């Protein structure tokens, strides 16, 4: 079996399903596919990929980017999301510093981060090349 050709689901924990559904379905515009047999709310992503939200009253984020969305035009995507109440984060770390527009740039890659209502860190990124060096 080649897992690279199989549908994949990213699963995030959320404390409040209704609030998360409003954020992912409303603000981010992800289509709701329904619930899986365990009751997890499933949203559609490109192709066969999906996002599952697992309710956990004590949901805690990981402290790192949990999900990233590749976009063609980061400024346009950010403006659209800001219009839906999404707030973009700023970082000032040794290897990662965002500019006054909340964008980090390295080579041809540009990225910006935001959090969902439960603190899961999400990212928009444009450009960038993944090298096949493994």
Structure description:
- By secondary structure, the protein is an alpha+beta fold.
- The protein is 15% helix and 34% strand.
- The chain has a four-stranded mixed beta sheet with strand order 1-4-3-2, covered by helices on one side. It has a four-stranded mixed beta sheet with strand order 5-10-9-8, with helices on one face. Strands 6-7 form a two-stranded antiparallel sheet.
- A hairpin with a 2-residue loop joins β6 (92-93) and β7 (96-97).
- The protein is globular.
- The relative contact order is 0.20.
- The mean pLDDT is 91.
Question: How does the major sheet shape up?
Answer: 4 strands, mixed
List segments where confidence is low: pLDDT < 50 over at least 5 consecutive residues: none
Q: Separation of termini?
A: 21 Å
Shape: globular
Q: Strand sequence of the main sheet, in spatial order?
A: 1-4-3-2
* Total strands: 10
The helix-and-strand class reads: alpha+beta
| H and E string | EHEEEEHEEEEE
Which descriptors apply to this entry?
single chain; 4-stranded mixed β-sheet; 134 residues; 15% helix; alpha+beta
